[in-house]
């Protein structure tokens, strides 16, 4: 999969019969590989076009590259794709405009469809009628149709897990006919697959420029911490076109902006007589190029075989604190970005793939001091304090990039409650953890802190120190007994009972003796 610039001219592609603008150098415009039915080279604007699921289609043009260069651009604000065709000889440019109906970009939920229970049948393999290709709900599959023949790369696999029945099985293949073919990757993506099959290159007539991958993804504004799943991996040791050293890949990435770049296209034929604009191509987004701003990515290479189902967790590495706009996931049985390494027959199985949103505390400090023996999986602590903390005296740091933290202080009970909610809490209401700090005020009758002292002499509360607020006395369950501005306050307290005194923004525990 090689990189192309956004403007391509003079490419030595096969086919194309035009000679000049007047002679219809651009012979057709294709949207998702279907010819625009009302296309007329003399008409430069087409309106009323629609998008599916908030994703712009793949737009390609058939042309004579020896005579015409082409560039395309996307104007998201005006729902428009412009095609600029320039006559190489005269330098004259004609612009074709595709106008799409306005649409709302519905934000997909925080989770992907990774159980692989729902699917549609794509078709059966021409060389093996028992091999049924599928497309899983929420994913696109790399199954290949070539010269009317079907080559299955993605199937369902029986796997009884978490109450489900199926998993996704990706298998590298070798599309072709009459003994001529090329290894191709088995992969699935939450975006769309695209492929350019350079048949002349495959047959050795000229260099093989075949390319492909994933474009687009989900409209997505969440901040997951990792992607996890169950995986198996095998290598075909008997295949003459195999590679027993090939790695498999897990990719997930988040971004803002829109990347556009140009690439070859088959244009609905077997020859490369067309060019297309790719919107949010995988390699563009991962490199943060051509209009994309990468927010975070998770990448993992699966080496060797995994004979048994193995849980793999891949953390996202964040490069920005921005809120994402889009996300894409690619699971590949092939060494995805290294086409020469593809081994025919190698497989990758996947199930229970999901984003994980952390909702625990990474660290916790009180009055600037870390809580002793703190661990994210321990949820209750008894902490000695000199005075009642406010939320400003508590520093709680979550292990979740998008997690939220709420802090509640109860002075009457001497308890601090800290709740951490995962970024997906709106849809996963169980994704939270609660930490409790039981504050241990010094348990004596005579208590001093910051030049204020409170003492119970058996008959009176005696207060000393420099302060200008009232004293408040509470039972341990929060019932207010009295409030006074006096320094000596007559009161009868039950022997052995605990009381809370609040004064000058501080809380003290008093034990009546």
Estimated share of beta-strand residues: over 45%
Distance between the termini: 81 Å
Taking the sheet with the most strands, its summary is: 7 strands, antiparallel
Rg calculated over all Cα atoms: 33 Å
The total beta strand count reads 45
- Overall geometric form: elongated
Class by SSE composition: mainly beta
User: Whole-number average pLDDT?
Assistant: 87
Treating each run of at least 4 consecutive H or I residues as one helix, how many helices? 2
Helix content: under 10%
Low-confidence stretches: 1-24, 443-447
Task: Offer a quick outline of the entry.
By secondary structure, the chain is mainly β.
Descriptive overview:
By secondary structure, the chain is mainly β. It is built from 2 helices and 45 strands. Strands 11, 18, 21, 23, 26, 28 and 29 form a 7-stranded antiparallel beta sheet that branches. A hairpin with a 2-residue loop joins strand 16 (176-177) and strand 17 (180-181). It is elongated and about 105 Å long. It starts with 6 loop residues before the first strand and ends with a strand. Mean pLDDT is 87; it is low at 1-24 and 443-447.
């Amino acid at each position: 999969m090689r990189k192309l610039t956004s403007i391509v001219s003079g490419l030595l592609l096969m086919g194309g019969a035009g000679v000049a603008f007047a002679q219809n150098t651009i012979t057709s415009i294709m949207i998702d590989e279907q010819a625009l039915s009302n296309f007329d080279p003399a008409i430069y604007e087409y309106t009323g076009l629609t998008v599916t699921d908030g994703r712009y289609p793949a737009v390609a043009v058939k042309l004579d590259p020896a005579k015409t260069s082409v560039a395309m651009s996307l104007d998201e604000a005006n729902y428009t794709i412009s095609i600029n065709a320039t006559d190489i000889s005269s330098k004259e440019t004609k612009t074709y405009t595709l106008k799409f109906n306005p649409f709302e970009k519905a934000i997909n939920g925080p989770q992907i469809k990774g159980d692989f229970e729902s699917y549609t049948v794509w078709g059966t393999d021409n060389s093996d009628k028992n091999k049924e290709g599928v497309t899983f709900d929420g994913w696109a599959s790399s199954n290949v149709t070539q010269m009317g023949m079907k080559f299955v790369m993605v199937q369902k696999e029986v796997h009884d897990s978490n109450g489900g029945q199926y998993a996704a099985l990706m298998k590298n293949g070798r599309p072709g006919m009459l003994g001529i073919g090329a290894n191709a990757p088995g992969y699935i993506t939450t975006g769309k697959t695209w492929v350019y099959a350079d048949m002349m290159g495959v047959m050795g007539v000229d260099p093989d420029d075949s390319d492909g991958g994933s474009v687009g993804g989900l409209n997505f504004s969440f901040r997951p911490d990792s992607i996890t799943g169950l995986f198996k991996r095998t290598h075909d040791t008997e295949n003459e076109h195999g590679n027993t050293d090939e790695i498999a890949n897990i990719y997930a990435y988040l971004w803002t902006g829109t990347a556009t770049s140009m690439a070859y296209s088959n244009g609905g034929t077997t020859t490369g007589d067309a060019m297309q604009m790719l919107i949010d191509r995988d390699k563009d987004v991962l490199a943060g190029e051509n209009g994309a701003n990468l927010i975070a990515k998770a990448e993992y290479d699966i080496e060797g075989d995994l004979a048994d189902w193995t849980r793999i967790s891949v953390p996202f590495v964040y490069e920005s604190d921005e809120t994402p706009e889009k996300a894409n996931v690619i699971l590949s049985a092939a060494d995805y970005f290294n086409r020469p390494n593809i081994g025919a027959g190698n497989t990758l199985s996947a199930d229970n793939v999901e984003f994980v949103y952390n909702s625990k505390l990474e660290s916790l400090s009180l009055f600037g001091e870390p809580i002793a023996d703190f661990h994210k999986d321990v949820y209750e602590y008894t902490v000695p304090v000199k005075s009642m903390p406010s939320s400003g005296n508590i520093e709680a740091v979550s292990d979740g990039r998008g997690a939220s933290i709420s802090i509640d202080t109860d002075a009457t009970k001497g308890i601090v409650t800290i709740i951490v909610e995962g970024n997906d809490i709106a849809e996963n209401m169980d994704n939270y953890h609660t930490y409790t700090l039981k504050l241990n005020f010094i348990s004596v009758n005579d208590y001093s802190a910051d030049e204020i002292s409170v003492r119970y002499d058996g008959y009176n509360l005696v207060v000393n120190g420099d302060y200008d607020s009232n004293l408040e006395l509470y039972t341990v369950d929060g019932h207010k007994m009295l409030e006074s501005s006096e320094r000596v306050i007559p009161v009868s307290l039950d022997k052995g009972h605990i009381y809370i005194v609040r004064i000058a923004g501080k809380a003290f525990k008093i034990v009546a003796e």
